[in-house]
Design brief:
Chain lengths: ~110, ~110
């Protein structure tokens, strides 16, 4: 069983569209994250949820809206997609802040 | 978080030990040293972490200097599958949920 699974793995869409990326973890962790890795390969945290509560919200445009329906899921909805949103988005989870993070395999988003 | 400095790249021969250095001269007493790696096209993978003492697990060993200003990740017998970007991260452990990645070290294991 995949510990942290993201869908879809690849997403190609046109500018202006709205899209969602789903993330599920079966590790029983209480904290989930979204990271963005751009073309320069830098990994930047976007959001973090602990027990469904938003605890980290980095400088991310309002077009990005995370939603955590329960502790095992953290979805990312993106409105009005722009070319600059093209990147690989990684979901991760952890048990509190103490232990290592487990990352998903990523969603490669391409906006054309 | 304390800033870390890593060499941008290094090569290693297959079967030999790979020693990856990391400087973190401004680390505070409550900050831990974490190591992750990212194999091409995959999500980052947790390797090991430590505070003061040396640590070892099935993947690697972590050696932290006595003054804690630097550390070394040791891959005892590097294989081609260990080719990846390795990240050294310093952070508080108890309530710091922001795991921040730097540029890391690109390690290439050669046959």
């Amino acid at each position: 069983d995949t510990a942290v699974s993201q869908t879809p793995k690849y997403l190609v869409t046109q500018m202006g569209n709205d899209k969602s990326i789903k993330c599920e973890q079966n590790l029983g962790h209480d904290t989930m994250y979204w990271y963005k890795q751009d073309s320069k390969k830098f990994l930047k945290i976007m959001f973090s949820y602990n027990n469904k509560e938003l605890i980290i919200n980095e400088t991310v445009p309002n077009r990005f809206s995370p939603k955590s329906p329960d502790k095992a899921h953290l979805n990312l909805h993106i409105n009005s997609l722009e070319l600059g949103d093209s990147a690989v988005y990684f979901c991760a989870s952890s048990q509190g802040a103490t232990y290592g993070y487990t990352f998903g395999s990523g969603t490669r988003l391409t906006v054309v | 978080d304390a800033k870390t400095t890593q060499p941008p790249s290094m090569d290693c021969a297959e079967g030999r030990a790979a020693n990856l250095p990391c400087n973190h001269s401004t680390i505070s007493g409550n900050e831990y040293v974490y190591w992750y790696r990212q194999i091409h096209s995959q999500g980052p993978q947790y390797i090991i972490h430590g505070l003061k003492n040396n640590e070892t697990n099935e993947m690697a060993s972590l050696i932290i200097t006595e003054d804690r200003k630097s550390s070394t990740l040791i891959l005892p017998h590097a294989t081609l599958r260990d080719t990846a970007v390795y990240y050294c991260i310093v952070r508080f452990r108890s309530n710091d949920y922001k795991l921040s990645f730097g540029a890391g070290t690109t390690v290439t294991v050669r046959a």
